[in-house]
Amino acid sequence: MIIADIISFVFQVASIFVPIVITLSIVTFSAWFLCGWLGAYPKSWVAENSNCFVFSLMFAISVVVIACPCALGLATPTVVMVATGIGANHGVLVKGGDALERAQNVNYVVFDKTGKLTQGKAIVTAAKVFPGMDLGDFLTLVASAEASSEHPLAKAILDYALHFHFFGKLPSSKDGIEQRKDK
């Protein structure tokens, strides 16, 4: 899988940022603990059933939580996933984040409104199977796997399989599975 440049950049930033945040958290804990041990702040700042260790630990944890780079590491791939999902809902299939990122450099797009260049849908042009495997058996398997899917590529696979081979009743995803309803 090719990782988009922005995701690689975020991971590089996080690889530097995380040790800095952890170090800062340790320094924060040490400073507050030392100040509490030396009595540099009033005892009224510490909760009644607590001590300077717990008080210092709360500050250290706060530093980690507030400066956590998890937001960067989680948000960036999520944005790429949502963008490719929205594209798919509108009939635009994007192979991955890297392709989406490269799309910003596209200067020209050719639309085939009349269908002279394309059919306007994905098609399978050929299928290759492992030696010793029957193409008909293979197409039966993939056709039964894709029969209940609405995905454009699944439809293309199913169309290819149905065009080149006659099938009886395709097995559904529930054939051979006993259904039970328990309370």
UniProtKB/TrEMBL annotation:
Alphabetical UniProt keywords: Metal-binding
GO molecular function, one term: nucleotide binding
Transmembrane segments: none
InterPro entries referenced in this protein's UniProt entry, alphabetically: ATPase_P-typ_cyto_dom_N, ATPase_P-typ_TM_dom_sf, HAD_sf
SUPFAM superfamilies: Calcium ATPase, transmembrane domain M, Metal cation-transporting ATPase, ATP-binding domain N
Claim: Isomerase is one of the keywords in the record: no
Range of residues in the leader sequence: none
Protein name, UniProt field: Copper-transporting ATPase RAN1
Organism: Zea mays (Maize)
